[in-house]
Each structure stands twice: as structure tokens, then as C-alpha cells.
Design a protein that fits this description.
Shape: globular
CATH class: Alpha Beta
Strand content: 25-35%
Oligomer: single chain
Strand order of the largest sheet: 3-2-1-4-5-7-6
Number of domains: 1
Number of strands: 7
Helix content: 25-40%
Distance between the termini: 31 Å
CATH architecture: 3-Layer(aba) Sandwich
Order of helices and strands: HHEHEHEEHEHEE
Structural class: alpha/beta
CATH superfamily: Vaccinia Virus protein VP39
Length: about 180
């Protein structure tokens, strides 16, 4: 595990109980902006990489039931599990997702890759687990990545970019499709 990932993981382990109070508002804004640009069907199987405390679960419509929340931080997932008892939480590394190839419809990755030494590995792993026609919904801090670098990472993994834009807050977002 890289030092950068280890340090980020340690920070999230230590601050899990405070995460929602600190970041809920800004994460909800990202969710609103990104999901206004795409549709999720109730039958879609969605993987939220870097799910943390499960804030995305609070945001998604109640008819979206097939959601897996995945995070490296056990404490973050425990916070989510305490709030949302019926959700599926998986403690795993985004660079080694424990899912078979081509099994998911949507992978979300909000504010994750800026914490990684090698973000291309996580983006490639998301490509591996998506079905043909599946979508990646990703955000990244604009002070860490410019739009050109983000585009390079996404295209290098094999995706076709449907939309790349600057959110009204401090992030770039991309919606990309596996063809």
C-alpha cells in the first residue's frame, strides 16, 4: 500500500464519527450535480467506491436498491452500517475490487482518486467490473487534477467520456461509458 493511501486511510479511520457532519453538505451538492446528468434504473447494480459512511445511500431514490458501498476504512463503513442496516458494505481496496468482471451497471467514485498514488489502477478496476454499456461517475478535486489529466486517466482505462465538466464547487466530474 502506498504511503499516500495509507495516510488517507488512517485519517478516515480516525475521523469516521465526524465525517458526515464535516462533509455531508458538500458531498450532497456533488451528488445532485452529477446525478442530474444521468439516470439510474431501479434494476441497476451500483458500486460506490470510496463510499465512506454511505452518504450516497441517503441521496439515491428509494427505488434504487442494488447498491454496494465499498471503502478501505472499516470505521467509515461501520458508521454507514449503523445508519443503514439493510445496505451491503464491503471493506476493500479500490485498486483490488473483490468483484467479478463485467457484473455492475454503475460505479461511482466521488472524491477518491485524489487520495491515491496511482489513480489509474482504481479507474481501470472500475472498468473491469462494469458491464458493457456501464457507466463510471467520478469526481476529483480541481486543485489536484486539471480536466486534461482527468480525461487522460479515464481514456487510458478504456472509457468513452460522455461528459466532463467543472462542478459549481471545487471538483471536476466525469461521466464515462464502457463500450
Amino acid at each position: 500500500m502506498s504511503k499516500k493511501k495509507y495516510e488517507a486511510g488512517k485519517k478516515y479511520e480516525e475521523t469516521a464519527t465526524k465525517y458526515d457532519a464535516r462533509y455531508s453538505s458538500i458531498q450532497q451538492q456533488k451528488f445532485r450535480e452529477v446525478f442530474s446528468q444521468t439516470k439510474i434504473k431501479s434494476s441497476d447494480l451500483l458500486l460506490d467506491v470510496g463510499a465512506g459512511t454511505g452518504l450516497l445511500l441517503d441521496f439515491l431514490p428509494s427505488n434504487v436498491q442494488n447498491i454496494i458501498s465499498c471503502d478501505l476504512s472499516f470505521n467509515m463503513l461501520l458508521e454507514g452500517k449503523n445508519k443503514l442496516k439493510n445496505a451491503l458494505f464491503v471493506c476493500a481496496d479500490s485498486e483490488h475490487l473483490p468483484f467479478r468482471e463485467s457484473c455492475l451497471n454503475i460505479v461511482t467514485c466521488f472524491s477518491v482518486i485524489q487520495n491515491l498514488q496511482e489513480p489509474t489502477i482504481t479507474v481501470s478496476e472500475s472498468f473491469r467490473v462494469l458491464k458493457i454499456g456501464g457507466k463510471l461517475l467520478l469526481t476529483v478535486l480541481d486543485k489536484i487534477y486539471c480536466d486534461k489529466k482527468l480525461e487522460e486517466i479515464i481514456v487510458q482505462a478504456g472509457y468513452e467520456i460522455e461528459k466532463l465538466w467543472h462542478l459549481s464547487i471545487e471538483d471536476f466530474s466525469v461521466i464515462a461509458k464502457k463500450d
